[in-house]
Amino acid sequence: MKRTLLLLVLLLFLQSCIPLRVAPKIEDYKVTKGDEFKKSLPEREMFVFEDPKDINHFYHYIDTKFQLNKENVYDDVPFKIDGVQYFFSFYEVEISTKKINLGGMVVDAMFGAAGIGPVVNDYAHRKGHWYIAIEVYSDTEYDCLMATSLSREAVLKYLTALKKEYLTTHNYNETVFTN
User: Fold this and answer.
1) Angstrom distance (rounded) from CA 47 to CA 126
2) What total of structural domains would you count in the chain?
3) What is the pLDDT of residue 140?
4) Residue 51's CB: how many other CB atoms inside 10 A?
5) Distance separating alpha carbons of residues 124 and 93, to the nearest angstrom
């Protein structure tokens, strides 16, 4: 009985992976400081959501919707809310979930002690998660998503609708007529 229990515990230990970093799970969207979400992002408040589509889909969506002809697609994209001019920039960012495989280390150590070379070699596992981070500004406001911004609620409503349209649209040419 003790031997079976020991074998079961050892088997569970060998199969375990310890997470070193876990990518955030965002249900709808999140407003957060960009550099706190990912260090490479600006310090402004960002509208962040998970992007289940392939890389560059959001780029193509924005390029098509705003008819930018592949010019300044990432930066200073103009849009209006109630006649007021705003601009947004967006970033496609990846955050990986990293795990370390203890079982692989133990197996390689056992084989190494027996004079056999490593079998597993790859102890770390990664799984990437992609996010879209959008910052919004205007001629009168440096950061329209700050909690104290007068236009925050209107901008959030606009970005929420933009995100919904992006995620539900497959033919981005359809978005030109809803601009």
Assistant:
1) 25
2) 1
3) 92
4) 20
5) 21
Q: 121: closest CA among 138, 107, 133?
A: 107
Amino acid at 45: E
pTM, whole model, 2 decimals? 0.74
CA angle 84, 90, 95 (to 5 degrees): 150
The region that residue 66 occupies, defined by phi over 0 for left and psi between -120 and 50 for alpha, beta otherwise, is alpha
Q: Name the residue range of residue 62's domain.
A: 2-178
Fill in the amino acid letter for 56.
N
**Which residues on adjacent β-strands are paired with residue 90?**
134
61 pLDDT tier (thresholds 50, 70, 90): very high
Rounded mean pLDDT, 11-29: 70
The whole-angstrom separation of Cα 45 and Cα 41 is 10
